[in-house]
Design goal:
The chain starts with a strand and ends with a helix. It has 3 domains: 79 residues, Orthogonal Bundle (Endonuclease III, domain 1), CATH 1.10.340.70; 43 residues, no CATH class; 92 residues. By secondary structure, the chain is α+β, with helices and mostly antiparallel strands. The protein contains 9 helices and 6 strands; from the N terminus they run βββααβααββααααα. The radius of gyration is 40 Å and the shape is rod-shaped. The longest helix is centred in the last third of the chain and has 21 residues. Strands 1-2-3-4 form a 4-stranded mixed sheet. It has a two-stranded antiparallel sheet with strand order 5-6.
Length: 231
């Protein structure tokens, strides 16, 4: 049973006597101003936990339903709500490298700004220079839908694509004739370059036949590798 009294400064106080502690006078706080006082102390003390706020209030103030007011101030604080941990039922997210699989993957990164945790989700979509949907698994569909990969920083990508299209036409004919496909040699490639027409019309890359003939000693090995890669 607590007994209220009037202190020398005119405030209503309650004398508190705890074991092994000196007596202390607690200021009585009316219910009408209790919520405002607890919220102000919560912000002034830099958002303490509910237990820490209860210790401060019990040391200096006395009011009915003080624990309830302290809990309400802590639950209604947006800053404290942003610092709460995620429920254990959720999948924990962490920073990691994007997936190498084809499709869409999500990678989460936890940032900390001004005592607030921010969850940043990055969406990663794998992409290729070309793609093809094959309608069935028949041999002809698989052969016609086969694509040649595109390598970055390679000026012969267009030629590689043309050779892959030529491959789809030549291989069935050779299969019907039972002819074996042998590897191309640099000598054969060089001979084919010299037989090119010397026309001025350029392709999509702006390359004309004269460019190949003048640089045959540089591009012969490269074109030979492309031919052997496709066939």
């Amino acid at each position: 049973m607590h007994v209220a009294s009037i202190a020398k400064d005119g405030l209503l106080v309650v004398r508190r006597c705890d074991p092994l502690a000196p007596p202390n006078e607690l200021n009585i706080v009316p219910r009408s101003v209790l919520d405002g006082l607890v919220t102000a102390l919560h912000i002034k003390l830099d958002h303490p936990s509910k237990h820490q706020l209860d210790l401060v209030l019990k040391r200096h103030f006395y009011a009915l339903d003080m624990p309830k007011a302290s809990e309400q101030a802590n639950d209604s604080c947006h800053t404290c709500a942003s610092l709460k941990l995620f429920p254990n039922s959720l999948v924990e997210q962490s920073s990691e490298d994007p997936s190498d699989l084809v499709g869409i993957s999500y990678v989460a990164t936890v940032l900390k700004r001004n005592r607030q945790l921010i969850l940043v989700v990055r969406e990663t979509v794998t992409s290729y220079t070309s793609k093809c949907f094959i309608k069935d698994e028949q041999l002809g569909s698989l052969r016609d839908g086969k694509k040649t990969p595109n390598f970055d920083e390679n000026i012969f990508d267009l030629e590689r694509l043309k050779l892959s299209k030529l491959q789809n036409k030549i291989i069935p004919e050779l299969d019907l004739q039972n002819k074996e496909i042998t590897k191309a040699t640099p000598t054969e490639t060089e001979s084919a370059i010299w037989k090119l027409n010397t026309g001025k019309a350029s392709d999509e890359n702006g390359i004309v036949s004269e460019h190949y003939i003048r640089a045959f000693d540089v591009i012969t090995d490269e074109i030979t590798d492309i031919i052997n890669h496709n066939f």
